[in-house]
Amino acid sequence: MPEEHYRVILRDDEVPTQWYNIVADLPTPPAPPLHPGTGQPLEPGDLAALFPPQIIEQEMSTQRWIDIPDPVREIYRLWRPSPLYRAHRLEKALDTTAHIYYKYEGVSPVGSHKTNSSVPQAYYNMLAGNTRLTTETGAGQWGAALAFAAEAFGLSCDIWQVRASYESKPYRAAEMSVFGGTVVASPSELTQAGRALREQFPDTTGSLGMAISEAVEAAAGDPQASYCLGSVLNHVLMHQTVIGQEAVKQLALCDEPGLDYLFACAGGGSNLAGISFPFIRENLEGRQEVRIVACEPSACPSLTEGEFRYDFGDTAGMTPQLKMYTLGHDFVPAAVHAGGLRYHGMAPLVSHCYHEGLIGAIAIGQREAFEAGVMFARAEGIIPASESNHAIAGALRQIRATPAGEKPVILIGVSGSGLLDLPAYTDYLSGTMPNT
Amino acid sequence: MPEEHYRVILRDDEVPTQWYNIVADLPTPPAPPLHPGTGQPLEPGDLAALFPPQIIEQEMSTQRWIDIPDPVREIYRLWRPSPLYRAHRLEKALDTTAHIYYKYEGVSPVGSHKTNSSVPQAYYNMLAGNTRLTTETGAGQWGAALAFAAEAFGLSCDIWQVRASYESKPYRAAEMSVFGGTVVASPSELTQAGRALREQFPDTTGSLGMAISEAVEAAAGDPQASYCLGSVLNHVLMHQTVIGQEAVKQLALCDEPGLDYLFACAGGGSNLAGISFPFIRENLEGRQEVRIVACEPSACPSLTEGEFRYDFGDTAGMTPQLKMYTLGHDFVPAAVHAGGLRYHGMAPLVSHCYHEGLIGAIAIGQREAFEAGVMFARAEGIIPASESNHAIAGALRQIRATPAGEKPVILIGVSGSGLLDLPAYTDYLSGTMPNT
Asked: Residue B226: enclosing H or E segment and its boundaries?
């Protein structure tokens, strides 16, 4: 048997003790969010109605390291540190001299990285005396993650799921229920917004924008409730940096000269930020020279084809304006399977890093993504999430372009498990999937 | 943070190097299988048409340790050693002083323990020059495991899935396809047996017995094909002992005085045997005194309500006769969700151990099983397989009967992930699930 590493697993007391805030290290400061009414930079007080104080502090912080509270680490330890694998069998299948590693977040309770942020968000809401969380979900990964986290801290959780997903993906709704969440199809009869939408569009299958309106209304009408977000904002991205911190440590145990390429999928940006920001720090401090590549779907290419400007975070234009790469807040992406990547913009911090040249980006069609995912599954025994397939496909492009004999070290962020995405694989294997 | 273990993970080079054959250590020899035609004890030659020589040797062996070939260990290393967890949060939820551990096989490529045997079976068939494997599958766990293993060694794999499952569980069929398997609903048009059954029963939704007939016929008609079995036989049980060997080693790292109870679900018997046989050896050699409890579904209680006698392994009465606890080969269990536990008999080696008092058994209703599974999921962040819920429920009975202050050490075998069983959870949560 080869003596090389197959998987690098840290001890359970090596879960990171701090989140990494990249704002402290950026060569230029990112542009502030603007108040939707006044157009002026947002003040902490403007967010007080929405978020608990610790979340607002984290959202605005310029401090490099933020302590992870013990009760949050306790829950993280159910699945963290997540494993880093050397993809020996994928290397063999590709007949490449490249060294391929992947960091796997599918081991989490809901099979994706989303719990890294849902757990602290639930915790800080509990500290603030809230007893109920509300949110929206599309494919259902964020909804399931928040349901799990709410249950862990004794809070209730109401999730508005886009009706089209609710009906076509019953497994995700079941998962949210197992973790104690209450799921309703949106638009629903439970909110004014929902009722109005149903009256106006009786046949609507819903949208993320509609579901957001309902979840926000529900939280606004209940002083003990709080609305939670699963991506885009600074504090969410920061929570995800446990992924990259672990990966830096794990790769250091692998007798490699350094990492050459990092591929991660990017929708709202929290997965990409989580795994890449600690490597950007490695680059900025001169310890490594990692080329970081955001892999976005060609159906929703905010970085590669969007404009860098202020735009709203939601469809209805009610949120603060964020300086980001955007396709326009009224952009409606094609109904690709990777629901987690269908967002019109890109997180402001990721956008800033891209604009400053700290990361690169490519767009991947979904047929190319699933072709890569099937090859990965057969070689490595893990069926990746639809979203993660974009990162694998990005890595495969690079590997296939590697001159014979060169040994680049490549890390792929596999953000989740594809077990609940199996119908998408059926679509791919049947040969009917369009490439975008 | 507590200093106690949360999970005990062995290094990837600590995958067991040998399988454990309990036959070498049994105080009394188990009764031999009988030829279905002559009624005489089976000879190795009788199996030559069905299995490759190494499998026959293992099936008949009385040698205590059998080397695991390196190419099999290579594949095992994709997910083995599997983790052992201390269930701190479940202990808290139960308000118990018991120490609860669980060994989790859901990390395998198909989310269950089945790959521990499918991989060596595919390997030995490849060595024997076979290029195609056939099998039947009910819920789909074994079919997916064999598809994965066949692909790993470059073999094709044809799976006949009971039509009712094929239609109601499309995710499993998709999983088999991702791993390169060809899945057809049984009865099919591809075999004489299937065509005859469809003519005789045009509306049939199939059965495991029908699917076996088709898979066996397909292999018999192709000299390069071989039929594979996922449970019951000695060699399958032996392959699964990697689970128990790892658990013995992992528990020894946990500063406990010794294991008091082991709960594992039992259908055909391979999961129970895999985790318990190495602990039976601990008991027989006087190192530990573990009470081993097989948890079977009350809808199919072969150990607790069956007879210990010779019976056929299949419904049609075509296999060798096996000395086992059986409800009769024509017994049709209720359509409980734990498809993997719906077998009329119990593996001969497990039956022998039960008859000799080396293991005990209890029967669990499915509502009790799912109640335990939901509690486990919310505490530990892992949704267990329908089958595994029976083991968790068995452990919960014991824990709730533990006098205050006592600290029994309890191990639960969690044989798989329940992500593809989520519709069963929906059935439970809706309040409509019958208890048997």
From this structure: strand B225-227
